[in-house]
């Protein structure tokens, strides 16, 4: 790696041989430009001053700010954020500056500073020992299920905390400890203590590796009274400082067993963060996407920091060791995407004209005016006093009337109650307690089943995403092979840069994300099988519990003689039945949601396969024409039929109809879906198809291949763009058995699924895509509110195989050109989903899920 002018990182691929003449023209370097780059000699002070110091002023004025430390394990994230006693990190320095700034304004403003420190950790959803034995009910034992949980690092005894959205849409952590303080030292001490409670485990890359994301939130509230108007102003500035868990993949840390699973889950929340970053970085571009913050607790927590009202700095950490090349590349790509996130800037102004101060103005200030004037308050208070007097008088009158009427009713009631503590009422109480216990157990099981179904959906969506990543790579390879097979172009010497790159794709080793996807699929499938087994077991328990409860319902009323009490028991049972029925309906909806998601994925793959077949037919036709082979009449007729179906777009309309139906089937569908818009055959998108869709159809006809872009579709697993380059049979080859047949129940599918093995690469059948491939990155760089700093440190726990850090010759050329060429090599899939279960709130309303597939690179034909 080299560094120049402290803004560029040039990554050199250590695996490529410089003496390889076949690749002599190919650049081994990848350049990434950031706002700031630090090498291993940078001090904590320098890092703080260049990245964070300028944000503190904003927090004091009521703006939000966020600082992320991102990177693989052992690269120094915790060191940057927390530091050591002699070299304090960003936390202490930022807090010191914050208090200094606040003291300077103390004369005009009253201020309070409160802070909370939490970790977003992976933990066990159930443990056998968590289940308390109730009376003589059997104890249900569950194996461990991992889930994302939030823990208060300042008060770990408070257990796992829940996230809730308040009426203004801000995320609140229920029960978090907020410590008010007046000096930075106190906070630093609390932080050091809190950090010791953080989940740490040794990995091969770091002896004290943090296995959770730590979020320090400092809230500054300032109040001032404007003398001229008498209006009280409140400014609230929030500062988030986030030390993320390592972004490494399992192989890097040599994690096994629990650590490996943990890594996969940590990566899942980082993946969700990445998806949000991708979607946000596309905002304002031609392919604006929905940003799904609900994908993980981490992203929900950081919604404001990422999505809008915050100035955000990401400090990406990489190791200069050549052995960490892949991790470094992934980190830089991630950070580069984050850099594209833009604040909504006024349209008429050029982004270049903005300085830091202007950007700060674009972010909304959290200023609340107390809009009532003091005089109005006096009036309101007087009114309230009057109301109290009136009410007091009414109460007195009522008391007088009662005493005139006779003895106190309450006294009579108490007397009757005491007398009623007969043996029969005691028996009734016992029976009621037993019934309620049984009902409660059933409800808990129902909720656990819903949790499991939710986990199932998450796992399923994750698996789809990885399958898509692999499919994309396979298609790219097929594309490369096809280009190589095109003798005409070679003859003409038209080997453009684009084609060279395609040929490179076949030669190049499998990209990192594809390898990761293969690893993850096996993990996810194993977990799906485990979840399915658990579900079956739990369903069995629930059936037993229901049986037992219905026996109780029959038997208990016979033990009670009083009709009133019998009626109470009957009502109790009825209320419970309704409650249970409701929960079961919710669980059913979830299950159907999951099924739909699977169907959609299957349809998506079939669509791709359909287009591939289309391509094959066309090529075969060209071959028949070229060779002058006579066509039997039956075949010609069949072909005609095929063409007329395509022309009328029946298949396409059916697919659209399906997607519309699916989205309608979803309860509380939030997407504004216009059916008529979808089905209008005159609608441009449907009729026109995408660029290059018009194909020269055999037998001399021109036909539009219907577009399969279903942008407004709210289906769970929908690709916003599909590339019809799937090879014949690849559906079976690449999909897990769970997706390779017609939809079965998830439990069936999962229990049938065998461990997934990497598919052999089929490059024999290449085909041509007729859908556009949008570049993942936009060349145009608008004003970005997300500053990115990259920190390279000399590894402490790695041994460095020669440092690839070199100095670039000074170049004044535009950075964006280099970036764009790099971006061309980058591909990615983004999958977004929204899964909501009972744990997320009182309602188990399902949000629509989406899958968005980002194309890998532009391809000119
Ligand atoms: N710039 C630096 N100078 C000196 N020591 C450093 C520097 N950066 C990191 N270290 C040391 O390297 C080790 C690993 O760093 P640290 O724990 O901060 O990594 P991390 O990225 O937070 O890892 P993980 O994700 O596993 O928690 C620590 O002992 C830390 O003190």
From TrEMBL:
Q: Main subcellular localization, coarse class?
A: cytoplasm
Keywords in alphabetical order: ATP-binding, Coiled coil, Cytoplasm, Cytoskeleton, Microtubule, Motor protein, Nucleotide-binding
Biased region (Polar residues) positions are 746-766
Family (UniProt): Belongs to the TRAFAC class myosin-kinesin ATPase superfamily. Kinesin family.
Which residues are in the Kinesin motor domain? 1-341
Q: Which PANTHER family match?
A: CENTROMERE PROTEIN E (PTHR47968), KINESIN-LIKE PROTEIN (PTHR47968:SF69)
- Any idea what this protein is called? Kinesin-like protein
Chain intervals with Basic and acidic residues compositional bias: 483-495
Chain spans, region Disordered: 483-504, 672-691, 737-766, 794-861
| InterPro entries in the cross-refs | Kinesin-like_fam (IPR027640), Kinesin_motor_CS (IPR019821), Kinesin_motor_dom (IPR001752), Kinesin_motor_dom_sf (IPR036961), P-loop_NTPase (IPR027417)
Which organism encodes this protein?
Willisornis vidua (Xingu scale-backed antbird)
Residues bound to ATP are 71-78
Q: Which residues form a coiled coil?
A: 374-401
Localization terms from the record: Cytoplasm, Cytoskeleton
């Amino acid at each position: 790696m080299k560094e120049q002018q402290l803004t560029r990182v040039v990554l050199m691929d250590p695996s490529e041989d410089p003496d390889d003449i076949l690749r002599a023209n190919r650049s081994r370097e990848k350049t990434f430009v950031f706002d700031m780059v630090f090498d291993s000699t940078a001090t904590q002070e320098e890092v703080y001053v260049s990245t964070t110091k300028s944000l503190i002023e904003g927090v004091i004025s009521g703006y939000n700010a966020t600082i992320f430390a991102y990177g693989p394990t052992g690269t120094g994230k915790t060191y940057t954020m927390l530091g050591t006693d002699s070299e304090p990190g960003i936390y202490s320095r930022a807090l010191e500056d914050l208090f200094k700034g606040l003291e300077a304004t103390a004369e005009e403003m009253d201020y309070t500073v409160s802070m909370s420190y939490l970790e977003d950790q992976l933990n066990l959803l159930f443990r056998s020992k968590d289940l308390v034995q109730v009376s003589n009910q059997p104890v249900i034992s569950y194996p461990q299920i991992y889930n994302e949980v939030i823990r208060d690092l300042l008060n770990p005894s408070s257990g796992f905390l829940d996230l809730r959205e308040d009426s203004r849409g801000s995320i609140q952590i229920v029960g978090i400890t907020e410590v008010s303080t007046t000096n930075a030292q106190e906070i630093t001490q609390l932080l050091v203590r809190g950090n010791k409670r953080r989940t740490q485990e040794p990995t091969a890359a770091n002896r004290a590796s943090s296995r959770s994301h730590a979020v320090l939130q400092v809230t500054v509230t300032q109040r001032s009274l404007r003398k001229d108007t008498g209006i009280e102003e409140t400014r609230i500035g929030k500062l988030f400082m986030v030390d993320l868990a390592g972004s490494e993949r399992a192989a890097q840390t040599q994690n096994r067993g629990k650590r490996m699973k943990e890594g996969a889950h940590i990566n899942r929340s980082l993946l969700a963060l990445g998806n949000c970053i991708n979607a946000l970085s596309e905002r304002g571009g031609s392919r604006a996407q929905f940003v799904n913050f609900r994908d993980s607790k981490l992203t929900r927590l950081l919604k404001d920091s990422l999505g809008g009202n915050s100035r955000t700095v990401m400090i990406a950490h990489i190791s200069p060791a050549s052995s960490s090349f892949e991790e470094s590349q992934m980190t830089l790509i991630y950070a580069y995407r984050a850099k594209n996130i833009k604040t909504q800037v006024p349209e008429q102004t050029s982004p270049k004209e903005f300085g830091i101060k202007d950007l700060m103005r674009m972010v909304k200030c959290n200023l609340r005016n107390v809009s009532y004037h003091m005089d109005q308050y006096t009036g309101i208070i007087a009114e309230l006093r009057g109301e109290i007097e009136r009410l007091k008088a009414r109460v007195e009158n009522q008391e007088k009337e009662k005493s005139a009427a006779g003895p106190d009713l309450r006294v009579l009631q108490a007397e009757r109650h005491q007398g009623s503590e007969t043996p029969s009422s005691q028996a009734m109480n016992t029976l009621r307690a037993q019934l309620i216990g049984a009902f409660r157990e059933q409800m808990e099981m129902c909720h656990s089943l819903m949790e499991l179904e939710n986990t199932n959906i998450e796992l399923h969506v994750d698996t789809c995403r990885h399958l898509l990543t692999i499919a994309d790579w396979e298609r790219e390879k097929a594309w490369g092979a096809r280009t190589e097979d095109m003798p005409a172009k070679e003859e003409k010497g038209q080997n453009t840069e684009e084609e060279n790159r395609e040929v490179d794709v076949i030669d190049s080793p499998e990209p990192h994300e594809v390898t990761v996807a293969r690893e993850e699929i096996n993990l996810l499938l194993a977990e799906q099988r485990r979840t399915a087994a658990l579900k079956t077991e739990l369903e069995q328990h629930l059936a037993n519990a229901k049986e037992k409860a219905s026996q109780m319902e029959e038997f208990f009323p016979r033990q009670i003689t009083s009709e009133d009490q019998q009626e109470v028991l009957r009502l109790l049972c009825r209320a419970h039945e309704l409650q249970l029925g409701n929960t079961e309906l919710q669980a059913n909806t979830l299950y159907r949601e999951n099924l739909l998601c699977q169907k959609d994925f299957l349809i998506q793959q079939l669509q791709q396969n359909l287009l591939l077949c289309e391509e094959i037919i066309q090529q075969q036709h060209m071959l028949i024409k070229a060779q002058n082979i006579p066509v039997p009449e039956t075949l010609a007729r069949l072909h005609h039929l095929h063409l007329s179906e395509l022309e009328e777009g029946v298949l396409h309309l059916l697919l659209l109809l399906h997607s519309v139906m699916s989205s309608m089937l979803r309860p509380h569908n939030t997407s504004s879906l216009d059916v008529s818009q979808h089905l209008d055959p005159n609608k441009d998108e449907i009729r026109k198809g995408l660029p290059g869709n018009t194909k020269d159809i055999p037998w001399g006809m021109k036909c539009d291949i219907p577009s399969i872009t279903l942008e407004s579709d709210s289906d769970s697993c929908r690709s916003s763009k599909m590339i019809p380059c799937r090879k014949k049979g690849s559906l079976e080859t690449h999909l897990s058995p769970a997706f390779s047949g017609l939809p079965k129940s998830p439990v069936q599918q999962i229990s049938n699924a065998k461990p997934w093995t990497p598919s052999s690469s089929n490059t024999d059948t290449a085909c041509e895509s007729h859908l556009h491939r949008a570049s993942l990155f936009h060349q145009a760089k608008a004003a970005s509110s997300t500053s990115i700093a990259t920190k390279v440190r000399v590894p402490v726990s790695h041994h460095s195989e020669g440092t690839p850090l070199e100095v670039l010759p000074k170049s004044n050329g535009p950075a964006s050109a280099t970036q764009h060429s790099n971006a061309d090599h980058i591909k990615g899939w983004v999958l977004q989903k929204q899964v909501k279960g009972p744990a997320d709130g009182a309602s188990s309303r399902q949000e629509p899920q989406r899958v968005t597939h980002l194309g890998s690179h532009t391809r000119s034909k």
